[in-house]
Design goal:
Elements (H helix, E strand, L loop, with lengths): L2 H8 L68 E2 L6 E2 L15
Antiparallel strand pairs: 1-2
Length: about 100
């Protein structure tokens, strides 16, 4: 082996004993394995069927028992006025009875 061959082999240029893996590594692995293919898209949101609460902010239907809207994240639970205990619709900013701002 000549001087040039030893030099090229130590730099990874030789074909024998090279630790570099080329384009053909990972045979048969398919998409999404580092070749630049994007992941598959998420399925679109579909409104559930059933008697779940409707969001007061975006009007999206939600599953029964939901506390927050699956579409916008706002609360779908009705509240009570902190001043006069009047029941409030979910998302109310002011009490319809006493007018106090709700936080």
């Amino acid at each position: 082996m000549g001087f040039l061959d030893k030099l090229l082999q130590s730099m990874g240029g030789g074909h024998h004993g090279s630790s570099r893996s080329g384009h053909g590594s990972g045979h048969g692995s398919g998409r999404g394995d580092g070749y630049g293919y994007p992941p598959p898209p998420a399925p679109p949101y579909t409104a559930p069927s059933g008697g779940g609460p409707t969001c007061p902010s975006c009007s999206a239907a939600n599953i029964p028992g939901a506390r927050f809207c699956a579409q916008c994240g706002k609360s779908v639970i009705p509240g009570i006025c902190s001043n006069c205990n009047t029941p409030l619709v979910a998302g109310a900013k002011f009490c319809p009875n006493c007018g106090k701002p709700q936080t």
